[in-house]
Design brief:
The chain has no helices and 11 strands. Strands 2, 4, 5, 6, 9, 10 and 11 form a 7-stranded mixed beta sheet that branches. Strands 1-3-8-7 form a 4-stranded antiparallel beta sheet, with no helix packed on it. Helix content is 0%, strand content 53%. It is mainly beta.
């Protein structure tokens, strides 16, 4: 069982920045994949940014240039730095991990990000 604990959400004005953190209870280095998704009210959950099993960062088109995903393997932690936030970025942000060898997916409890105009 993998536990993912997120932090860093909150309320920010448009144009502001937030950094989300997600700490896993197990080792998250490649080939395990780990990243962030989000779900706005009435919408499907969508990719924000993630590290692939090969360790390559991937970003949603809507977030390219505005966010950076990074990781600290020693702390089993993945970060999402988001800048130039827009009201449409308002959503619950979920940390996700895909464990390569077990082929299982895990989700965090979610952290609310609200961007006011």
């Amino acid at each position: 069982q993998v536990q993912l604990v997120e932090s860093g959400g909150g309320l920010v004005q448009a144009g502001g920045s937030l950094r989300l953190s997600c700490t896993a209870s197990v080792n998250i280095i490649s080939p395990n994949a780990m990243g962030w998704y989000r779900q706005a009210p009435g919408k499907q959950r969508e990719l924000v940014a993630t590290f692939s099993s090969g360790g390559t960062p991937n970003y949603a088109d809507s977030m390219k240039g505005r966010c950076t995903i990074s990781r600290d393997n020693a702390k089993n932690t993945v970060y999402l730095q988001m800048n130039s936030l827009k009201p449409e970025d308002t959503a619950v942000y979920y940390c996700h991990a895909h464990m390569y060898y077990s082929n299982l997916n895990y989700w965090g409890q979610g952290t609310q990000v609200t961007v006011s105009s």
